[in-house]
């Protein structure tokens, strides 16, 4: 593997992140802090506990997932779309770097930024709620896998998009509603039976459930299904990106 190519793309993307640190890091952290104030303080004062956990602490894994998912997609999609927009994608494709190395550079940079934001939000949460993490290794594992898998998904969106409107289309119309309806702010066991069944078709439920289990030891679905879901999603994204570079779909047109 051409590690120098991976390192060059990675450093370029990370440098762009730190040049726009207010937009890249401060803004999502501030927005999530407002969620803590509104949901944790205002609504949490009216809800005693959920599954034996205070409501303010219960929503922490969901808030982290909400931010990490959207930031992973946004970072990776913009990272690969912008070279397409200004035409430098052809210089990248003519460089001695394989599709695997190009993908690794962009995806690792997007995942690193999302991971940093997730950790900062977790640290911020300790200022608002009394929080304990029962399984810290699993918590980090879920966080890393989520950052990587949704950065891969964002990379696909960035290649698919033909304008800035399309770049925001799937995150706004599909991903964000799935996250809000995926148990980020509640347990799906609180829903009527029919909605519990419908919720099981939402893949975000499995991610939030597994991540919440790492904090409190309770989950809406079995842990093994959360692991299968995130590994399956990651594998599907890798296969899709491999096919895109093999066929040149939306790249060479």
Describe this structure in words.
This protein is mostly helical and 253 residues long. It has helices spanning 3-19, 21-43, 55-58, 60-86, 89-94, 99-125, 136-160, 164-180, 193-199, 203-216, 223-247; strands spanning 49-50, 53-54. A hairpin with a 2-residue loop joins strand 1 (49-50) and strand 2 (53-54). Helix 4 (60-86) runs antiparallel to helix 8 (164-180), helix 6 crosses helix 7 and helix 7 packs parallel to helix 11 (223-247). The longest helix has 27 residues, at 60-86. It starts with a helix and ends in a 6-residue tail after the last helix.
Task: Give a short summary of the structure.
The protein has 253 residues and is mainly α. The protein has eleven helices and two strands.
Task: Supply the helix-strand structural class.
Answer: mainly alpha
Strand content: under 5%
Order of helices and strands: HHEEHHHHHHHHH
Major sheet: arrangement of strands = 1-2
The termini sit apart by 27 Å
Question: How are the SSEs ordered, and which strands pair?
Answer:
Layout: H1 3-19, H2 21-43, E1 49-50, E2 53-54, H3 55-58, H4 60-86, H5 89-94, H6 99-125, H7 136-160, H8 164-180, H9 193-199, H10 203-216, H11 223-247
Antiparallel strand pairs: 1-2
Helix pairs in contact: 1-6, 2-4, 2-6, 4-6, 4-7, 4-8, 4-10, 6-7, 7-10, 7-11, 10-11
